[in-house]
């Protein structure tokens, strides 16, 4: 009673070769019921439409006595046994009476559910045919024994044999009908591979008529270009009496190849004797082509996204160039010479960064990160000094709040610059697009108590972000800008990950946004990260 239904079904010969998925489908069609000792499940000559499997308990199968004779017990069915299968195949009266011999739990499959099951799992038809053949063989043996024991019952035994043969013929026709209307390929061979069942769907898909393949070896259906490893795997599985599932390259009559998704298994009779092989197939050529086209579209989309990312990164450097060119023109016009060399150096560095970025793209390699010692506070202050004069920041106050305990960290300066530019630009755009007066951006650093990590925090008093926007902030193509593409935050996440850090956003609508980046600052941590990422670690002095 406590045994799971799936385990009980696995013990039934009809379903013993079913995989877990098929057993789960079968289980959904079955109803479990409890019966008490003495309950009659059905009587001889009554009509029924249910097939029974004993999950726990026992059932007595017997024929009523004739002319005052005692009843004849035909069988005692116990846990794991089944009976009543003929009710699924025809509307004939029951051959015997079934009485519950002990309190029992039975699994019942109705005829209507059985018909639905056949369409989902056609192989069950062949399994039932094999079991029925074995049952009928047992019935024949019992009949012969009865002939020897009781000459007076010769007439009854003859009638039983006639009924059995009649049922077998009807069962054969019923199963042939199921096979013929199946939308999938059904091919059955003998133990030598000779085809003797080849359904209508197979004729339509392969193009051969039944007469053209009857008596031929199943190998004629395979393409000469079918990989030998695939056919070997098929043969090995059948040799181990296992079910094979896989794609086989088959050949139509007109010479066209197609991909056949095949399920193949042995058909065995009594005493596990091999009778033949059942092949079930489905032409998946069209679905494979659609899958290939979908992959092609994905690659095209990825190229488009890459182009957008390139444009985004280049735009950061162009902003530096344009801002400093504008300031340079103003200085020259005003006759200020002392700051020109500094601005030219900034523009030269920006061009160098653009060159490195472009070379990385052309080499199809991962970005090259060079770790070195960086005085973070001074580095950030220097970068902000050249960002502030840009046009987008002229109505925005950029303030700093640096932790003076910070000395230097091991990091990639170009990566830090990319993080800063992306977040500062995003904050400025959010403030400007929302037309917020007295806009402010704060850049903050904090040394954490463990002295091995630090926080860079960039916050603004812009429009803020919804919870949904925060959840998707670091996913590909996320953006809150009407003309944006969402690669900036994805780039930040990638750079922070290379540094062994974490990035998060804290925000509420109408209350601005804060991006919090936590980074390791020790050389030991940096060395570990550089080994994992392929980054280079340089021994250089502190940047001024």
Derived structural class: alpha+beta
Q: What sort of overall outline do the alpha carbons produce when their principal axes are compared?
A: elongated
Q: Main beta sheet: strand number and arrangement?
A: 6 strands, antiparallel
By CATH, the superfamily of the largest domain comes out as: Histidine kinase-like ATPase, C-terminal domain
CATH topology of the largest domain: Heat Shock Protein 90
- Radius of gyration from the alpha-carbon trace, in angstroms: 39 Å
**CATH class category label of the largest domain:** Alpha Beta
**Average pLDDT for all residues:** 79
Residue share in helix: 40-55%
Which CATH-level-2 architecture of the largest domain? 2-Layer Sandwich
Distance between the termini: 80 Å
The fraction of residues assigned to DSSP E strands is: 15-25%
Comma- or semicolon-separated keywords:
single chain; 544 residues; alpha+beta; Jelly Rolls; Beta-Lactamase; 4 domains; six-stranded antiparallel β-sheet; five-stranded antiparallel β-sheet; 15 helices; 19 strands; elongated; disordered C terminus
What does this structure look like?
With 544 residues, the protein is an alpha+beta fold. The protein folds into four domains: 5-178, Jelly Rolls; 185-283, 2-Layer Sandwich (Beta-Lactamase); 286-365; 367-544, Histidine kinase-like ATPase, C-terminal domain (Heat Shock Protein 90). 44% of the residues lie in helices and 24% in strands. It contains 15 helices and 19 strands. It has helices at residues 5-11, 20-29, 111-120, 123-149, 154-181, 200-206, 210-213, 228-239, 285-334, 340-362, 376-387, 413-433, 467-471, 487-498, 523-533; strands at residues 31-35, 40-42, 50-63, 72-78, 82-83, 97-110, 185-190, 195-198, 244-251, 257-268, 274-283, 370-374, 396-401, 409-411, 439-447, 453-460, 502-507, 513-520, 536-537. Strands 1, 2, 3, 4, 5 and 6 form a six-stranded antiparallel sheet that branches. A five-stranded antiparallel sheet has the order 8-7-11-10-9, with helices on both faces. Strand 3 (50-63) and strand 4 (72-78) form a beta hairpin. Helix 9 (285-334) runs antiparallel to helix 10 and helix 11 crosses helix 12 (413-433). The protein is elongated, with a radius of gyration of 39 Å. Residues 360-365, 482-486 and 532-544 have low confidence and may be disordered.
